[in-house]
Design brief:
It contains 4 helices and 9 strands; from the N terminus they run H-E-E-E-E-E-E-E-E-H-E-H-H. With 261 residues, it is low in regular secondary structure. It has a domain at 103-245: Ribonuclease Inhibitor (Leucine-rich repeat, LRR (right-handed beta-alpha superhelix)).
Amino acid sequence: MGCFCSKSTDSRTSRIGRWNATGIVALRDSKLKVLPDEVLEVNNNVRTIDLTNNNISVLPPDISKFVQLQRLVLANNVLQRLPNTLPSLRSLKILTLDGNKINTLPDEVGSLSKLEQLSVSGNLLTCLPDTIGKLHNLSLLNVSSNKLKSLPASIGSCTALEELQANDNNIEELPASLCNLNHLKSLVLNNNRVNQLPQNLLKDCKSLQNIALHCNPITVDQFQQMTAFVEFEERRKKKYDKQINSNVLMNSKGLDEGIDL
């Protein structure tokens, strides 16, 4: 572990005192290569740790001491893996790992039973662990800009999922279990290799309002011939009508069809 040198007069004691008082450890843009020792001296009731925009390559196993941690943000570092002590973070709700060098998510990620948002865009993932299906409270999953060729069938067990972002991968086929996601509102799959969707997706996912499939081989005809396409279109247009009524500006092309014409 290393020491943390501040450019200000902020002392180690005052930082620890502030972090204890607020429950927030904020060390963005601090040029860190390791997690400072003093972070691990903070009380166990810390709720947020934000280490965005550093050069941290390893997260120490001792991070597991923060059993009350709800938000862990490690975006834009150089992490290659996560510690196997991850399950100890049993209160974690938000885990942000965008812009690292992670090529594998450990099976232990499925033990984060309270997790609501998992974002791992801009990494080197070639697959997701089957244990992701144990995340029954997950509402947002962002796996964009990786090297995924598929999504695990177990994703259909993420019954609270509302938004799935998987842009810029190599996904060719989607599991039929996506049809189990009754709360799914947005499915974003631009820049992949998807040539068809599960036939009953629009029928079974009755909350689905947005599908983005730009730069995929699937055709408009295929999409429009899917079961319950008309009902999906009604939901989608109703969503945009609400946005217009709320003075939300649309792009110059109007209503995005979600697929290349």
